[in-house]
Amino acid sequence: MKKLVLVVFILLLIFASESFAGSKGGYKSSSGSKSTHVKGYHKKDGTYVQPHHKTKPNTTKLDNYGTKGNTNPYTGKEGTKDPFK
Fold first, then answer.
1. Distance CA 4, CA 50 (A)
2. Tens of pLDDT along 11-29?
């Protein structure tokens, strides 16, 4: 019985370490991230845009933070834009 408990404990440790390492999915700060950081900048009209995060460019609008049904994980703000317009 003690051996079984030890084996289960070791397997749980292995599973947990892989989960925390971010081996698959989720938002990470490494190159496998689903988002990217944008530095603050000035527009041509002089308006300053604050630094922020955005989803990486791809061919769909369905996964953007501003799209209806999605929530920005950094601000908690829900998306309002229709992805089909």
1. 54
2. 676 766 554 444 333 333 3
Nearest 5 degrees, angle CA 39-CA 40-CA 46? Answer: 145
DSSP 43-57: -TTSPEEPPEEEEPP
Q: How far is CA 75 from CA 32, 33, 45, 58, 79, in A?
A: 21, 17, 26, 22, 11
Residue-by-residue DSSP string for 15-39: HHHHHHHT-SSS--SSTT-SEEEE-
Nearest 5 degrees, angle CA 70-CA 75-CA 80? 35
Residue spans of the domains in the chain: they are 37-80
Rg (CA), the chain: 20
- Inter-residue contact 65 to 79 (CB < 8 Å): yes
The per-residue pLDDT for range 45-67, each reduced to its tens digit, is 999 999 999 888 889 999 899 99
pTM, two decimal places: 0.49
